Amino acid sequence: MMQAMVSHSYLFGGNAPFIEELYEQYLADPNAVPAEWRTYFDKLAQAPGAAERDVPHQPIQESFIQLAKKGVPGQRASAATEWEAMQKQVAVLKLISAYRVLGSRHANLDPLKRMDQETLAELDPATHGLTDADMAVQFNVGSLVGPQKLPLSEIIARLKQTYCGNLGLEYMHILDSEEKRWIQKRFEGDLSTPRYDADTKKRILKQITAAETLERYLHTKYVGQKRFSLEGGEAAIAALDTLIQNSSGQGVQEIIIGMAHRGRLNVLVNTLGKLPRDLFAEFEGKPMVELPSGDVKYHMGFSSDIPTANGPVHISLAFNPSHLEIVNPVVEGSVRARQERRNDTERKQVLPVLIHGDAAFGGLGVNQGTFNLSQTRGYGTGGTIHIVINNQVGFTTSDTRDMRSTIYCTDIAKMIEAPILHVNGDDPEAVCYAMQAALDYRMTFKKDVVIDLVCYRKLGHNEGDDPFLTQPMMYKKIAKHPGTRALYAERLVAEGVLKAEEAEGLIRAYRDALDKGEHVEQTVLTNYRREHAVDWTPYLGTHWAHPVDTALPQADIQRLTEKFTTIPADFKPHPTVQKVLAARRAMAAGEQSVDWGMAETLAYASLVTNGFGVRLSGEDSGRGTFSHRHAVVHDQNRERWDQGAYVPLRNMSDNQGDFLVIDSILNEEAVLAYEYGYSCAAPDKLVIWEAQFGDFANGAQVAIDQFISSGETKWGRLSGLTVFLPHGYDGQGPEHSSARLERWLQLCAEHNMQIVMPSEAAQMFHVLRRQVLRPYRKPLVVFMSKRLLRYKDSMSPIDAFTSGGFRPVIGDASITDPKKVKRVLLCAGQVYYDLVNGRKERGVEEEIAIVRIEQLYPFPTEQLAAELARYAHVKEVMWVQEEPKNQGAWYQIRHRLEGLLGAKQTLLFSGRPSSASPAVGYMSKHVAQLKAFVEEAMNLAK
């Protein structure tokens, strides 16, 4: 037929779909098309200007247009019958394309078979002009994998088996032709049909038997206790086993899993190998590890080493709060840190796996943020395998019409062109087949892939919930469902793979082992030491006041400065940047005071030069939101970032630590959670997240509340994450003033975080170096003043860097005779300079002492007590803040201040009046409030 295609005039423009199919084959493999067509396409590719066109299809498309207008020179016109035959051929190709795009809509995905299947005209041959008379006619299949020519009836049968069986595929939204062709070869070549040997089938049955038996055992042993059962979705356990056992053959050495509650206990026991007796102890209120607060059993993480045919694979299940999907970016951050620790530039050795719920996957915005991170330079992890436990009911009371505005809960994944494999949970073999394909795709293309495991949920949202209240018809169907294990066992018995008594024997063996609190067989390696494991013991049991030398000799400062202020000769920096670099050289020489940008850069330079990595991310972190950092220098004559950007701190020495500064996506929740996860796996790095404005952290409150502030007390997880929050009242309105200091202080207890509000540039230098050099890993939150970045009085002399360290309390060095002092003002942050200026204006420098509390938590009680001892005779001690009275530090530290006062001393307050808004929006009102509270602080007449 191909010969006839060329020798006869079939090349009309109306037949473009057929020829485009051939051209798709040619692009993937030129040898896959007949020689005549290959010659024709070769000539088109060599046509003038073809190489400059945006897409390879453009030459062929233009050729079709010309053929339609002029015909092909030297070829006779088509006869009517030939024309009709060609139209039928085009119709077949359109039908193939329709199945590839829409076939999943007719797939057999629902184990409950509740919904009537929608009829899609595009999948009806008649829609394309094909009739019963055409069923025996041989047609060219185009790019459909298989024989080049088949009867129409067989083409349709292959399409239905591939796209409308127990597996439904969505991949035509992918733009990359190579990826689409890979998927077509994989699934069309196999007809989406797994072909497992008897041993593999028995292993799958054993996995789902373990999953079901554990749930039923717990249901009878611990009646009414929450466990978020996996019943109905047991095939997920078999899929995870497939993933683990086959991933090591492709170089995977670690798998990091993030998941919410559904099936978590099952994964802990049957995938990670947690001892059943340990799980039972938790059901009985006996935690295996005593933590200050601990957490419920279905939030706990676990890790183990699983043997496979290609060596051990380390599996970690991340700790997770009840806010479901928030764990996902945490996992991605942890994976990225582990990959970098291994120097795994191909991102093959550490694999992220995220297990979602159907309602949460599309409903929670953190997933959009996590997907958005997946292919970016600073956050990519080489692709994630997503498993959606789609029990079709969300959180019990929901209806799909209320849960989402898309057909599938997985449609959100199309934003990054991830392939989506919908699979019927009652077919465990199809589920494992989909998992193997997902693994192979991820390892080939370094991209995310989604498995939509369509199943059901046998019980309510939790074991105390009655789903019949809101889903009576669904649960009538579920009550009659025999269960995935029973169906699969029956299938294997029918196939002759095993006998019915063998299948029942698996249940008995598993229950007998559970009665002993053991596993049926040993699945976890013991006493195995991983090469890349992190040793956290140096950071355990240390104190925030642990002494550490953070000063640098001036010679070192000058040497470092010379390095990070030197720009390649062929670079043309912006004139402003040139001035900044010149000023920094002067600062290092002691010719002018050191500003905040220089202090920060010195800290990074000193750390990376000594082998410590630095990772800084935020929405404007390269330049700095307030144009103060300039960690990335841009060539003014080059457009492309990779050619026109220079990062001095990456060029400090041959054996330096990594320095990565990232202008992140506009999503605080996902990015902050990601950086937290990264920090939990990289204690030897300074990991920083910077809010563009301090109050933007509001969008990441879940990450703050459920990980940063409480991760250690709940789960024993240490993190040295540093958070920069611009904070300060400058008359810029409510959204650019407050970083909500009061919220952070409210979360402080049990030495869980460090909250600092530095007022001098040198303080910034020392606190950043202290964060890494001191063996103490707690989150550090730095409330930074925008105004002070360029405020001369807040800049520091060079000797503040060559000696000393971070000072939690800074006393008033201007007071030479403490006995003359009548009032002591305590404050934090930039308001100090307003008070100093107010004191000077009123001529009360000797009567009012101003003490700065630079570290608000852990509260520096001893240091402040020592400073206040100088003024034991003073009757009035006043806390002054620029925030409204109901915000800021006042109500969170008042009791600490009162505890330090003498019996005859009184604690007073001065600040803005209580307000529902963080700050006023009118400059005139801002100035009036500032003047009023400064006046109150200076008024000694009271």
Automatic annotation (TrEMBL):
Molecular function per GO: oxoglutarate dehydrogenase (succinyl-transferring) activity; thiamine pyrophosphate binding
GO CC terms: cytosol; oxoglutarate dehydrogenase complex
Keyword terms: Glycolysis, Oxidoreductase, Thiamine pyrophosphate
UniProt xrefs under CDD domains: TPP_E1_OGDC_like
Class of the enzyme per the UniProt entry, highest EC level: oxidoreductase
Domain Transketolase-like pyrimidine-binding, first and last residues per copy: 594-791
Record-level GO BP terms: glycolytic process; tricarboxylic acid cycle
InterPro entries linked to this entry: 2-oxogl_dehyd_N, 2oxoglutarate_DH_E1, DH_E1, KGD_C_sf, ODO-1/KGD_C, THDP-binding, Transketolase-like_Pyr-bd
Reaction(s) the record says it catalyses: N(6)-[(R)-lipoyl]-L-lysyl-[protein] + 2-oxoglutarate + H(+) = N(6)-[(R)-S(8)-succinyldihydrolipoyl]-L-lysyl-[protein] + CO2
Enzyme Commission code(s) on record: 1.2.4.2
Obligatory cofactor(s): thiamine diphosphate
NCBIfam families noted in UniProt: 2oxo_dh_E1, PRK09404.1, PRK12270.1
Protein family membership: Belongs to the alpha-ketoglutarate dehydrogenase family.
Complexes and interactors: Homodimer. Part of the 2-oxoglutarate dehydrogenase (OGDH) complex composed of E1 (2-oxoglutarate dehydrogenase), E2 (dihydrolipoamide succinyltransferase) and E3 (dihydrolipoamide dehydrogenase); the complex contains multiple copies of the three enzymatic components (E1, E2 and E3).
Protein's job: E1 component of the 2-oxoglutarate dehydrogenase (OGDH) complex which catalyzes the decarboxylation of 2-oxoglutarate, the first step in the conversion of 2-oxoglutarate to succinyl-CoA and CO(2).
Record-given protein name: 2-oxoglutarate dehydrogenase E1 component
Organism placement in taxonomy: Bacteria, Pseudomonadati, Pseudomonadota, Betaproteobacteria, Neisseriales
Gene: sucA
